[in-house]
Design goal:
Layout: H1 10-16, H2 18-48, H3 52-79, H4 82-88, E1 91-92, E2 94-100, E3 103-111, E4 122-129, E5 145-149, E6 163-167, H5 175-183, H6 187-195, H7 200-204, E7 210-212
Antiparallel strand pairs: 1-5, 2-3, 3-4, 4-7, 5-6
Length: about 210
């Protein structure tokens, strides 16, 4: 696995890394949902006037509310820090595959192999994003990134079902660092990805935005 070591600028990452923003949004949603469930549980208890059915419903809703509140603390630990994520996942070539009115689609050439051994499983992964500071909004723009692995099913446990590119530029504003990461990726990989940009619609048609080549 090819890795790229650099020091993440926490303030820059906080403003630009959409992975971090996604986690924050999930935490907020979990908190709001938990609060609503707690209110409903309280209302059920009042309406039922202590009846067994009301107590059972309230306990169920309260348990679910506690789980939602627990997610506020669990989610950051599950994802890990931005520094850990950039250090843990492999460096891969990614390119702007489509420019949208309010964002763009980034395509990366990744390895979907999830086992400790075996041959690489080349695949194309895409991610919609709104911000890519430090890069031009043009199709074919080279964007070094790390391939963040997501889900995998029981039936295909040796292969990732979901992989999402996370640009190095989300973790640092230093153009030199981004350029260094770009150079660390072999030219033949950039060329291979360039040739597959026309498969964007095929990647979009997959369940998890991951197309095995």
């Amino acid at each position: 696995m090819r890795q790229f070591q650099f020091t993440v600028d926490s303030e820059h990452n906080k403003k630009n890394n959409e992975f971090s923003r996604d986690a924050t949004r999930l935490q907020i949603s979990a908190g709001i949902f938990g609060f609503v469930l707690a209110l409903i549980a309280f209302a059920v208890m009042r309406i039922s006037d202590g009846a067994p059915w009301g107590l059972a419903v309230a306990i169920g809703l309260g348990t679910f509310a506690l789980f939602c509140f627990a997610l506020i603390f669990i989610l950051p630990r599950q994802m890990g820090s931005a520094q850990a994520m950039f250090e843990s996942y492999p460096l891969v070539p990614a390119m702007v595959a489509e420019v949208l009115p309010r964002g763009m689609v980034l395509m990366a050439l990744v390895d979907a192999n999830a086992s400790d051994s075996g041959k690489p499983v080349p695949a194309l992964a895409i991610r919609n994003m709104t911000n890519l500071r430090g890069h031009e909004r043009v199709v074919g723009e080279r964007v070094p990134a790390v391939a963040v692995a997501g889900r995998r099913s029981v039936s295909t446990s040796d292969r990732w079902d979901e992989i999402s590119p996370m640009p190095i530029a989300w973790g640092t504003a230093d153009a030199g660092t981004v350029k260094e990461a770009q150079k660390a990726i072999p030219e033949n990989e950039w060329n291979t990805l360039q040739k597959h940009l026309d498969k964007l619609e095929k990647v979009k048609a997959t369940d998890m935005n991951l197309l095995i080549l």
